[in-house]
Amino acid sequence: MRRRAWRAGDDDARRHQHGDARRRRTGDAGRHGAGLTVTRATVVQRIVEIGILPVVRAASGAEAMAVADAIGDGGIRALEITTTVPGASRVIAEAVARYGDRFLIGAGTVLDADQARTCIEAGARFIVSPIVDEETIAWCRRAEVAVLPGALTPTEVVRAWRAGADFVKVFPCSAVGGAGYVKALKAPLPGIP
Fold first, then answer.
1. 134 catalytic, yes or no?
2. Opening angle at CA 146, ends 140 and 149, nearest 5
3. Residue among 144, 169, 183, 186 flagged as catalytic
4. What are the C-alpha distances in Å from 171 to residues 107, 128, 145, 157, 165?
5. CA 184, CA 188: separation in Å to the nearest integer?
6. pLDDT at 28 over 60
7. Per-residue pLDDT at 38
8. Residue 173 lies in a domain
9. What is the pLDDT of residue 19?
10. Per-residue pLDDT tens for 150-170?
11. In this structure, is residue 133 part of a structural domain?
12. Is residue 63 part of a domain?
C-alpha cells in the first residue's frame, strides 16, 4: 500500500496524545486526562460566555450520554455530570473523549477532594459541589481546575469566595425564594460571581 508524502500537520500534537500538547497540560489534571491547553482561566471565561451549566442526572451512563447529546444538539456547549450518575467518572471520560474541546465537561455533586481528584483524572474541567469544602477548593486550585462550591447564606458565600472559589453556586436556591433570593444576596456581594 502506498502512503502519501508527509505534510505539515500530520503529527499535529493537538490531535494526538503525545508530543508538545501532552507537555503543555497544566497541574495534576493535565497529566491525568483533562483537556489539552485549556487553563482554569480559560474554563472560567468559557463558563461566563456560555452563561448556563446544564446538570446531567441520570439513572445510567447511557442515559447520561443521551442527555449530553441532547444538550449539545440544543446548542449548549457545557454540562455538569453529577457523581450520582452510576459510573460517573467513566461517563465523564466518555463525554470528554466524544466531545473533546467542543464541550466544557465538568463534574457535579462532588463532596470531597477525593471525588474531585477522580473526576479531574477522568477529564472534568470544572468541579461543582453543593457544599463549601475548603479542602476540595484548595485541591482544585492546586490542580488548576475551576471550582464552584455551593453556598446558601451570605456567610457561606463569602467563606467559599475567600477559600478560592471561581464562582459560588447558590444552593438550594429554590427552597428560599429562587431568583429573588439570589438578587437579594447579590446586592451586598456584587463582586462574587
1. no
2. 80
3. 169
4. 16, 11, 21, 10, 14
5. 8
6. no
7. 82
8. yes
9. 33
10. 999 999 999 999 999 999 999
11. yes
12. yes
Active site residue 186: no
**C-beta of residue 144 within 8 angstroms of C-beta of residue 124:** no
Q: Indicate which CATH number applies to the domain containing 102.
A: 3.20.20.70
**How far apart, in whole angstroms, are the C-alpha atoms of residue 147 and residue 139?**
9
Residue 3 falls within a domain, yes or no?
Answer: no
CA 7 to each of CA 3, 4, 16, 70: distance values in angstroms, whole numbers, following the listed order: 11, 9, 16, 37
- In the chain, the number of structural domains is 1
User: What is the Cα–Cα distance from 151 to 85, expressed in whole angstroms?
Assistant: 22
What the block records as the C-alpha cell of 123 is 477529564
Distance (Å, whole) CA 12 – CA 22: 12
Question: Cis omega before residue 172 (within 30°)?
Answer: yes
Considering only residues 19 and 86, tell me which one the structure prediction assigns the higher pLDDT: 86
80, 94, 121, 144: which one is catalytic?
Answer: 80
- CA 72/CA 85 separation, integer angstroms: 19
Q: Which three cell numbers stand for residue 143?
A: 490542580
- Print the domain residue range for 121: 36-186
